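Subgroup meeting minutes
Present: P.N., E.W., G.H.
Scribe: E.W.

1. P.N. recapped why we're keeping a running log of single-chain structure predictions: easier to compare across weeks, and new members can see raw inputs and outputs side by side.
2. G.H. added today's entry (111 aa).
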Amino acid sequence: IGYQDGGPRHVDGGFAAPLFLNASGEVVQTVAYAYLNLFMSAIPAGSVRIGCSVFSSSVEATAVRTPESNIQVLLYHPAPQEALVHFRVSGKVVSAELPPESLTEITIDSF
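Output recorded in log:
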């Protein structure tokens, strides 16, 4: 937990705290906290990171295989317009539309 200005910071332009105390002593959650929360809930314990390629400068992605053999894909899309993405998994293509400025979780069931 940091202070209301996002500190303490140990380097110039360093990382802001995901939680901070405002002037009245209340705990405030930042967008970084929401992203961390999504990652923690989307990637179950025991998951293994798998290969994932992205052919776009507007989307970042990572993927894991869960202990249940599902594939969990997390996509970060910071652009102000929607994006259509396609996944190729074992010769099958899965498509999804990403909302603007989003962090999206997609589960591909085991097959």
